[in-house]
Amino acid sequence: MLTSIKGFWKVCRYGDLYMVLAALAAQSINISVGFCQGFSAVLLPQYTHEHPNITYEQSSWIASLGVISNPIGALLGGMMVDAVGRRLLLQSIVLPNLIGWLVIAFSEAYVFLCVGRFITGFTIGMSTASYIYVAEITTPEKRGVLSAVGPGLVSTGIFIVYFLGAFIHWRHVAAICAGFSLLTPFLMYFVPESPLWLASKGQMKEAYSALFWLRQNNSTAQQELMEFTKDRKTSENMTFKQKLGLFKRRNVLKPFALLIVFFIFQEMSGIYVILYYAVDFFKSVGTSVNEFTASIIVGGVRVFMGAVGACLINSFRRKTLATASGLLLGVAMLGAAICDTLDGPPLIKLACILLHVSFSMVGFLQLPWIMSGELYPQDIRGVMSGATSCCAYVLIFFNIKTYPQLEYYITSNGTLYLFAVCALLGATYCLLFLPETKGMTLSEIIRQFEDEKKEVDPEIGCDKQNKIEARPVQRRHSAGAAVSLEKCDILTPRWTQKETAKKMAVHE
């Protein structure tokens, strides 16, 4: 642990400081995500107390409407993030976020409350662009820890909402969340756009400037830019059928299938049920601690374990963390189920649930979200990350919406056993099938999913033997460094080309 903390400190020193600041600016949107996810847990107890006639079905809609718009937001964000850029999309999220919270704060009827919850749900869906941005601006060594900051900030937002909801009215909580929504667009104003996105749009000078700002080193910026552009294949002259074929490649379909199955096990392990129904969940399982106090404890545990998970992700392999996390949270939930069956001490049951929350934060919760920004090729990373998040949010909605009915038919004790079994099955799946991404560049990650071990485009999988011929383009960056760029060929400085030509002439 001490080694991990020292490693995180090194990230914040010298040239890495700007990269860290940019990553934190993008990840700040996840605090608002935490607000959205945790709000129903404090809203429902207060609202049902104020309106005793509200039905159980209406209560479940208040909770689930904050999730049902997540898939729409994820799809919309996935299309926009490749069109307008990562930075601008993260700034534009303020619109649904601010409007939704204001509608909730001033709602006088049940319908307006549901509308506000639906609008704020777009924030959660579109926020996955932060993981793409962080994956593209960070170095392989620092990508894990900086990506893991996102789930940690989600937990921070949840804890703040739980804490505020225990002391003040839910309308005031919504007003505070509305004011906080202005933070991310303000911070993103001071950081650059993703260099990889700029380069993919042919804006090489701007890409170099962004990389130089992030790395604070001229040679490093040039080297990284050339590494990306040397195998880049533009799609300007591609037909619609060819563009559609990009989504049928093995290096797109395989990671998509792997992540969706991972998300299924994640949702069925009970992580989000405890999150969205924290107060009601503790009331149903029967603990000796006040429900609001228990939810605040859960929020605090999530924040602490989120920080621990961010440290561990830089020291252990992704597969190891996911497997261990799934196994431990499954055992913890099984302990809670057995304790409930035997009518054991309520404190032991609470301790088991807290352990379940703790173990989920060191791998099972954050890894599929982080990997959705790592596993896809650059040319369709935004769209596929959005599609993956869309499917994940559909699963979350289904889980949240059906939990009351599930609890009714198999009882709260039965749901505990179900969550435990799914977590253990998920751990087995991660051990057998989850790909490894720790310490690898995005190009190296994508190569794992190629059909053959031939020389292929590491970003989009195109065969270099069928490359498109193009004239070299001479570009001069702000530092005065001349770079020769080709669409699908290795970058070669002009002085090297001249030397090679002279040697060939001598041999002839």
From TrEMBL:
Transmembrane segments: 20-41, 61-81, 88-104, 110-133, 145-167, 173-191, 256-279, 291-313, 320-338, 350-370, 382-400, 415-434
Glycoprotein among keywords: yes
Keywords for this protein: Glycoprotein, Membrane, Transmembrane, Transmembrane helix
Stretches assigned to the Major facilitator superfamily (MFS) profile domain: 18-438
Residues in coiled coil: none
Molecular function GO terms recorded: transmembrane transporter activity
KW Acyltransferase (keyword) present: no
Gene3D superfamilies found in the cross-reference section: MFS general substrate transporter like domains
Stored InterPro entries: MFS_dom, MFS_sugar_transport-like, MFS_trans_sf, MFS_Trehalose_Transporter, Sugar/inositol_transpt, Sugar_transporter_CS
GO CC annotations, alphabetized: membrane
Membrane topology type: Multi-pass membrane protein
The protein's name in its UniProt record: Major facilitator superfamily (MFS) profile domain-containing protein
